[in-house]
Amino acid sequence: MRYFIAALFAATTLTINAATIFGQDDDYKATTNVQDSWEKWGPNYINHTADYRIRLGYSIGGTMPIPVPAEIRSINEFSPKGGINIGFEFSKMFSRRWGVNAGFHIFNQGFHTAADVKGYKMSITIDGNSMSGFFTGCDVTNMQMSGVSIPAQAFFRISPRWDVAFGPYVCTYFKSSFEGEVYDNKEGVGYLRVDTPTGERVTIDRETPATYDFEEHMRSWGAGLELTLDWKAAHHFNVFGMLDWGLSNAIDPDFDAVAFPMFPIYGTIGAAYRF
Amino acid sequence: MALLLCSGTMMLHSCISEEPLNMECDITSITIDVDEPTTLFYNAADASKSISELSLTYTQDTITFITRIDANIGNFPVTLNYTEGATPYLFTSETAFEVFKNGSAVDFAKGPRHFRIVSQDEAWHRDYFVKVVHRNKTGGDMLFDFNTYLLDPNNSEKFYIWPATDENAINGFMQGDIYWKNGNPGYKLSKSTAKPDEYPTVPIVGGGPDGSDCVKMETMDTGSFGKMVGLLMASGSMFTGTFDVANALKNALKATVFGRPFAHKPVRFSFDMKYEPAANFQNSKGEFLGNVIDEPDAYLCIYRINDADGKPTVINGANVVTSENIVGMARLPHNYVKNADGSLSDLPCNTPIHGIEKSWTHVVLDVNYTEELDPQTLANMGYGLYIGFASSWQGAYFEGAIGSKCWIDNVRVECAE
Fold first, then answer.
1. Which residues does chain B have within 8 Å of residue A68's beta carbon, measured at their own beta carbons?
2. Which part of chain B is CATH 2.60.120.890?
3. What are the structural domain ranges in chain A?
4. What is the bridge-based pairing of β-strands B125-134 and B62-67?
5. What is the pLDDT of residue A216?
6. Dihedrals φ, ψ of A101, to 5°?
7. CA A107 → CA A146, A154, A258, distances in Å?
8. Which chain A positions have a beta carbon within 8 Å of B25's beta carbon?
9. In terms of Cα–Cα distance, which of B368, B367, B378 is closest to B412?
10. CA B372 from chain center: how many Å?
């Protein structure tokens, strides 16, 4: 988990000077650096007690089991799908540094992966017929989810130009797709041991891959935590990084074909217009 | 963006845990490691059974080596190959076992020996019973009446299996594995909900021409799973050989492996059969071919166990009636088309000539030979035999009419003196 947070913020925090965040004088009147002053960026006592923002961002991430199970041996391909994230937020300040932030984000996010797996417990059910067991080979997954999320966050002004917000979100999905196929890996190994590791061994290769489509088993809602970091690049213009860490299984828990709970974890970077 | 993508991928890689230990515990090959295999066996290949040669399957737990009639069965060195990381054990009594070292001599004189392979993670094991037995001297004539059958205990009693009951078959032709094979194990993979009576090959109580039980084979839709892997239909079948479930979904033609050594010269192949072709003959893509009528198939073939290079002949669904190593054949009459090289290919059409009716028909076919059998080769088990039946004669290529039904009973093989 810490790797992901580190990775997400690597892109957005490269320009942050530690002194800017932590060494800032708390009293805006005493600020000598006009560039980063409270007078310039607010809030002051006259205005800036409320902010409206329209966000446009690009999301990348995955819906994955946490922690990644040992059965997943390597990730051979990864590419994002969709990624557009449009949001509207309102933040109300109770003091110079503290406030609340709420709004909605319309998103379309997803990914494609090809992973080598070993003894990966899986089950496929079609029309009531099921085949389950332990698969070794390559598992290709394509997932895409679009919906709207509603965050409700505590808002903290780290400095005149840096804001952070953190809190829960709930979301509902307009459409979720989760499909893929399994076949042999680059070494030509692709098979399912039916029911147990000592069961029948069924060869599955890329000429006759086993496909799956779990769309109807995707949940229509989700919840998690959202962390947002904003940097005021210009008077009305923010650059932001956002991490949405899903805490609810994206797949119906009664659906046992997927052996692990899958959590949507997506990072977004983008720009915001601040009214 | 690139940085973020790169970071995300690196993050995923950094989350990969240590490789889990192997859970599997299969014998992948087993060899009776004598210096001169042909002193003990009729064919050198008989000294070894392996997954890769299809002489061993992943579900098999009894492994039988058949020696020459006059061989002394005693201590033989055994070499095993097994799943990486697993540990092999040999039982020294009913309850005691010790780690088995490859090349150690094993005493087979008193019957089957019990091997156990324990997986690398020590959570799973498989038991194997290995026996070395003499080939028996039997007659060649055989009758298969299909009155004896049972639900397969090794497949959760999901479908029926038919053991041979004829003495000559049990002790000779089918020694070591007395069961007829069919595509039912493959059908089980695609239709797990099917009841025993809903499989392509089923027994019919009292359905035979003489009021005894018979076998019904039906060409069936493989359902969504079959569709998923591009195999739309399954012909009902009965044959002698091996059905390799491992290849059932990958390469079904190669999943049916035919033939066993046979010491006699079959001259006549007869059986009772009735047939009801269904409408809508379809090709492997599911496209209906309106001008084709489905046909049953029945064949008996004699072939050379080893090819011209001395390698074991492999007969499977792809060359079951076309292998150049076939020296004698009896087959239901069909239409053929002549190829440029003079060979014949099956010709599905709307004027079948097999002559099988919807009521029981007694069929007698002579075995036609393209070359005389060599008596010496015959005595040394150098020829093999297989018998096959299908409800759709092109079923191996996933062509046929779903719903075609074929009943068989009283299959008889008559051999020359």
1. 12, 15-17
2. 142-415
3. 2-274
4. parallel
5. 87
6. -140, 130
7. 5, 22, 24
8. 197-198
9. B367
10. 27
Chain A positions touching B190 (Cβ under 8 A) are 129, 131
Contact A8 B12 (CB under 8 A): no
Select B142-415's CATH number: 1.25.40.10, 2.60.120.890, 3.40.640.10, 3.30.450.150.
Answer: 2.60.120.890
To the nearest whole angstrom, how far is the Cα of A16 from the nearest Cα of chain B? 17
Residues of chain B with pLDDT under 50: 1-7
For residue A8, give the chain B residue with the closest CA. Answer: B4
The predicted-structure confidence for B268-321, as pLDDT tens digits, reads as follows 999 999 999 999 999 988 899 989 999 999 999 999 999 989 888 999 988 999
pLDDT tens-digit readout, A11-58: 333 333 333 434 344 444 444 455 677 777 766 545 557 888 999 999
Architecture of domain A2-274: Beta Barrel (2.40)
Confidence band for A95, pLDDT divided at 50, 70 and 90:
confident
Q: B27-134 sits in which CATH class?
A: mainly beta
Element (H, E) at A170: strand A162-183
DSSP state of B192: T
Joined together, the tokens standing for residue A104 give 């909605």
Q: Which amino acid is at B43?
A: N
Q: CATH 2.60.40: which residues of chain B? A: 27-134
Structure ipTM: 0.86
Report the alpha-carbon distance of residue B251 to residue B316 in Å, rounded: 11
User: What is the C-alpha separation between B371 and B327, in angstroms, rounded?
Assistant: 6
* Segment A203-234, tens digit of pLDDT: 888 887 888 888 888 999 999 999 999 999 98
Test the B interface: residue of A191, A194, A202 with most B CBs within 10 Å: A202
Burial class of residue B36, CB neighbours in 10 A (0-12, 13-18, 19+): exposed
The CA–CA distances, whole Å, from A116 to A72, A80, A192, B16, B322 equal 6, 18, 13, 11, 40
